[in-house]
Amino acid sequence: MLSNKLFASLALCAAAASFIAGAQTVRVNWQVNAPFADYKTYAWQLSPNENNSFYRQFVVEYVDAALQKAGLQQVAASAQPALLVTYHFVTQELMDATTTTDGFGWTGGPWGPWGFWGGWGGWGDFGEVGPTISTTEDRPRTMGILTVDLIDAKSKRLVWRGQATEDSVASTQKGDEKQVRKSVDKMFNHFPPKKS
User: Fold this and answer.
1) How far apart, in Å, are the Cα atoms of 37 and each of 45, 70, 113, 193?
2) pLDDT tens-digit profile of 57-82?
3) Cβ partners under 8 Å of residue 130, min gap 6
4) Which of 36, 42, 32, 50 has the alpha carbon at shortest distance from 67?
5) What confidence tens digit (pLDDT) does each residue in 111-157 have?
6) Number of domains making up the chain
């Protein structure tokens, strides 16, 4: 049976790990007067950095699916599309510090040494006071920010932006793809935006 100290430590570590691994923030903004109902076609306009990015394969696939689900058709850039689509992906290296404490500083307890309240008729005591040991561990993580922009091709104005911040980028290709898919799905969940 796990001791209370060990159980509390494991629960705290599990909670911290799930918070860091699953923390994602998605924000969307748009020009309220943009004619979204009139946009029927789009084309990608990628910078050399994004065109050669590892994430391009996932971003383009899932953004294409989201835009086509919303009724837009992809065309060549020379076919005068209504929207130009681009994306940016940046990362930032961060260091998290986790401090764990081993021990509560005493032994025994009010239940006495045999698990009874006060042992055999007494109130018990808190036993000997021992040292509390704290350990701090630094853990590196990579934060990622994916931004998808829709630009009105005629006016060259940014009309829609979705941005997803992932607190900890996955360390596998399958994990990267899953994070990109979730980010894009959330961004385009209510696309095109409805006029208020």
Assistant:
1) 21, 10, 75, 9
2) 999 999 999 999 999 999 999 999 99
3) 103, 105, 106, 107
4) 42
5) 455 454 444 454 455 555 556 677 767 677 778 999 999 999 999 99
6) 1
Assigned domain for 90 exists: yes
Q: What is the pTM of this model?
A: 0.67
Tell me, yes or no, whether 152 lies in a domain: yes
How does DSSP classify residue 129? B
73: which strand partners?
A: 41
Residue written as tokens 């590196």? 140
Cα(164)–Cα(169) distance, integer angstroms = 12
Residue 106 lies in a domain: no
Query: In this structure, is residue 19 part of a structural domain?
Result: no
Asked if residue 146 lies in contact with residue 164, where contact means CB atoms within 8 angstroms, the answer is: yes
Question: Is residue 94 a contact partner of residue 167, using CB atoms and an 8 Å limit?
Answer: no
CATH number for the domain spanning 183: value is 3.30.160.670
